[in-house]
Amino acid sequence: MSDDLRRVTELDRLIHEPARLLIVTILSTVESADFLFLQRETGLTKGNLSAHLSKLEDAGYVKIQKTFKGKLPLTICKLTAAGTKAITQYRQQLQSFMEMTTQ
Amino acid sequence: MKDDFAEVEQRIKRYWFSDGIGELAGGGMFLLLAAYFGIPQFLGENNLLSVILQSSLVLVMVAGIFVVRWLVTVLKTRLTYPRTGYVEYRVDKKHAIRIRTLAMAFAMVIAFLMVLLARSIQIVDSTVLVTGVVVGVVFVILRGKSYGVQRFYLLGAISVVIGIALSFSGLPNGYSLAAFYGLMGLGVMISGGWVLFRYLKNNPLPTEGDNE
Predict the structure, then answer these.
(1) Are B147 and B17 in contact (CB under 8 A)?
(2) pTM of the complete model
(3) How far apart are the C-alpha atoms of B125 and B123, rounded to whole Å?
(4) Given Cys at both, which of A27, B56, B99, B108 links A79, Cβ 3.0 to 4.6 Å?
């Protein structure tokens, strides 16, 4: 297997899925965001977003907390340290892969 | 791909300004400053209220900032978060300080050059000229460029134009500053009000079962 292909197979498949990549990218730019915000930004249905968040939570990449802002109930999602490390590594891997293929 | 990530990041940052509430509050702060500079000029230097106002700029600003932050939080909690969701932004203090320092240094250099030009003309009020340029540069660099919000470029340009126009007006210093902050306050509030109107029109409160 060539180095280029090996690099692709080393990408974190959990994050590589487009919807989850978008969720993780959004969460990596903020301290936290609620379910409604993620739903609007990703364009996913509630069920779809829930399923993707559950997978990310199971992997330890996202922490989900039910709380209140004033009287407003919120489902807050936050990237964990493991999630931050995973998206940083993913971006680095992808960047180096892109550089190699454009050379 | 790098650009895609950057675009998503900027869009998320831009979300803070999508409802115009921050501008409405900022415009209120400008109007407060207009009153701060205008009232002592109107009442005269020896009036008790003028003396109290002149010696309490820091207090007025700090109190104003606290009130504005509280008001923004209350309005966003009632209007924005139920409609389009809640976001807590990460504060990168080092980056923020670096950007602000650069913006202020750039603004001061431009302002200094404008003052040199003003002195050579000798009929202009350099204080309001400097204020207009500094506020304009802050709008363009900190808001327009950092967040990609196009209307802040316009507000920055308006600030510079008002600053230059008032510097030639021949008004006493207090009145020209009051006029500058008053006009900017109105401009920023009109901008914020229009954005809020459009935001509320385009984002009705979601009902149960939406997007299922």
Answers:
(1) yes
(2) 0.77
(3) 7
(4) A27
Q: How far is B87 from chain A (nearest CA, A)?
A: 4
- Which residues from chain A sit within 8 angstroms of residue B211, using beta carbons? 39, 45-46
Look up residue A73 and give its two tokens.
Answer: 């109930």
Partner-chain contact B212 A46, CB within 8 Å: yes
Chain B residue numbers with beta carbons less than 8 Å from the beta carbon of A95 are: 1-2
- Cβ contact A77:A37 at 8 Å: no
Q: What is the pLDDT of residues B120-173, one digit of tens each?
A: 655 566 788 888 988 898 888 777 777 778 889 999 999 999 998 998 888 887
Give the H/E segment covering residue A95.
Answer: helix A81-102
Which residues does residue B206 pair with via DSSP β-bridges, in sequence order? none
| Helix/strand/coil for A14 | helix
For strands B87-89 and A72-79, give the pairing. unpaired
Q: What is the pLDDT of residues A32-88, one digit of tens each?
A: 999 999 999 999 999 999 999 999 999 999 999 998 877 778 899 999 999 999 999
Exposure on the CB side of residue A18, measured as CA atoms within 13 A: 5
- What was the ipTM of the complex prediction? 0.80
B212 → closest Cβ in A33, A36, A45 = A45
DSSP sequence for B57-74: HHHHHHHHHHHHHHHHHH
Q: Please measure the distance between the N-terminal and C-terminal CA atoms of chain A and give it in whole angstroms.
A: 19
Cα–Cα distances in angstroms (integers) from residue B149 to residues A35, B10, B84, B114, B139, in the given order? 25, 10, 18, 27, 10
Q: What is chain B's percent helix, strand, coil content, to nearest 5?
A: 80, 0, 15
